[in-house]
Structures are given as structure tokens and as C-alpha cells.
Design brief:
- By secondary structure, the chain is of the alpha+beta class.
- The chain is built from four helices and five strands, in the order H-E-H-H-E-E-E-E-H.
- Strands 1, 2, 3, 4 and 5 form a five-stranded antiparallel sheet that branches.
- Strand 3 and strand 4 form a beta hairpin.
- It is flat and about 80 Å long.
Length: 154
């Protein structure tokens, strides 16, 4: 029986390729959601000079529009990173708030970032409820004798 003669270069090349694929599978996934910020365009929106149509032409359609109170447009942008086998985590977040007057002219613009992001950490997969804990048998037989005991009609 003859032994296989595989060149060392081929073995090393295959090992490096396999290592590269393993490391590529462990990299994070970056995802962008919402409005894509362009600082030059955002800086070009000036209170007193621009109106709704010029803002829509410059920045595009807003992410959210206020339904009550003063007319306000919100441009929301988030970038998340996700490691393998983990939940996505917000890496960058910004909100541009453009406020208008009744005539449709820009009154003010305001930017906020990660300081406004609320981190919520629930206790468990159960929602706490008021009342008492009932077991399976209590759920199954708990209403026996309670239905129709309101007394005679009269």
C-alpha cells in the first residue's frame, strides 16, 4: 500500500483557509435602521429660512410625524451590532427633531443621541399579574358549583 504524498504547502493553505472561515463566522453583524444621517444636509436646515417642503426636499420623508400638539418631524437613526448567538445591541442612535410653526416654517432643530435610549432588562419570561396562583386542577375544576348559584329568579 502506497502512502499519500501531499505537499506541505497544500496542507498549510487548507489549514489557513479553514481558520479564516472559522474566524469570519465569529465576526459581528452590523445593521443600520432608519434614517441615514448626513451632517451636511442636517446643518443646511435653518430655522426661519426653511419650510416643510424644503425640509422634505433636503432630508426626505420623516421617520415619524407628531399627531398631537405642535407639528414636529422626527428623523430616527440606529446602528446595531450582533455577535453570533446573541441579541442585537444598539451601538449608535440619533434623533433629529424638526419643529414647525402653524404656517409650516421651521422653528427649531434639535439632535439627541444615546442619552435618550432606555435600556430595559425584564426579570423573566413571565409577566407578573395580580391575583392568586392557580394550579392545573384548580383551573380545570375551579368553576364547579359557582355557575348558576345566583338564587331563584324573582
Amino acid at each position: 500500500m502506497m502512502g499519500l504524498n501531499v505537499p506541505k504547502v497544500l496542507v498549510r493553505g487548507t489549514a489557513f483557509a479553514a481558520l479564516g472561515m472559522v474566524l469570519a463566522g465569529c465576526s459581528s453583524i452590523t445593521n443600520h435602521r432608519g434614517y441615514i444621517n448626513d451632517d451636511v444636509l442636517i446643518a443646511s436646515v435653518q430655522p426661519g429660512l426653511d419650510n416643510r417642503e424644503s425640509v422634505r426636499g433636503t432630508l426626505g420623508q420623516p421617520t415619524l410625524v407628531s399627531q398631537f400638539g405642535d407639528p414636529v418631524w422626527y428623523y430616527i437613526s440606529s446602528r446595531t451590532e450582533q455577535s453570533p448567538f446573541r441579541q442585537p445591541k444598539i451601538d449608535q442612535h440619533s434623533v433629529l427633531k424638526v419643529q414647525f410653526d402653524e404656517a409650516g416654517n421651521v422653528v427649531s432643530t434639535e439632535r439627541s443621541g444615546m442619552e435618550q435610549v432606555a435600556r430595559i432588562d425584564p426579570d423573566s419570561a413571565e409577566t407578573p399579574t395580580l391575583g392568586r396562583e392557580r394550579g392545573f386542577l384548580e383551573d380545570l375544576f375551579g368553576n364547579i358549583g359557582t355557575v348558576g348559584t345566583g338564587g331563584p329568579p324573582g
